[in-house]
């Protein structure tokens, strides 16, 4: 075996300016790629009901991501369950495969602020590279899906609500309504006698409407009915509640004649509602998990006596 490495030692240094220029060029190309993908996928979501529902599926899995970044994920890896950058996967004791490094999922994240010519403040956006588990050396990676009891799910749903929630007798409720947000009374009435799935399906859109109303007693629920319906779907999808009754076949009518930027603004409204409710639920579910974790050692000690 040849062990003479002398020939390998004559290597020219890469000027720092060249590295910087290459990095800047790549960053610009990635940003432009994101802008192109965003325009393309926004148009698809606005005009195709199946694409719109696929967008909601992606957003339901990535509740902390903006609507714009969920659109980018939809355009690149719509089936992704988990995404992370180099640092994230290193913390998981994994690394991104060499052959996958040039095939990232690109999203946009805010960078430095700058002053425009008119004196207003803008924000630079940078393209960030993310990778899913199949692009790493992890084998048989399984995304853990927490399982909740009906009691846990409903308790989390109604904890710290933006308005009062009141159980009502069936004959006090409008025909066919399991729950109803009443802005003039700042409360949500919920029909008694429903099971957990029914409660979740009925209460989630009303919670979204209550958030949109934000205390306005003259609020018109029709103004955000589509956003609330979309929010409810994402919540049901995230927490494993049946979604078969949802119908988005007419979603394109809602976005008709909208510019791409307007479409993304409407998607963002539902995403922010979804995130707000999810954040409240996760706080309650997390507290329950922590309480159970603390109780377990005590139970084990008592059983060992």
UniProtKB/TrEMBL annotation:
Residues 287-299 have a biased composition (Polar residues). Residues 280-305 are annotated as: Disordered. This is LtrC-like protein. It comes from Extibacter muris. The lineage of its organism: Bacteria, Bacillati, Bacillota, Clostridia, Lachnospirales.
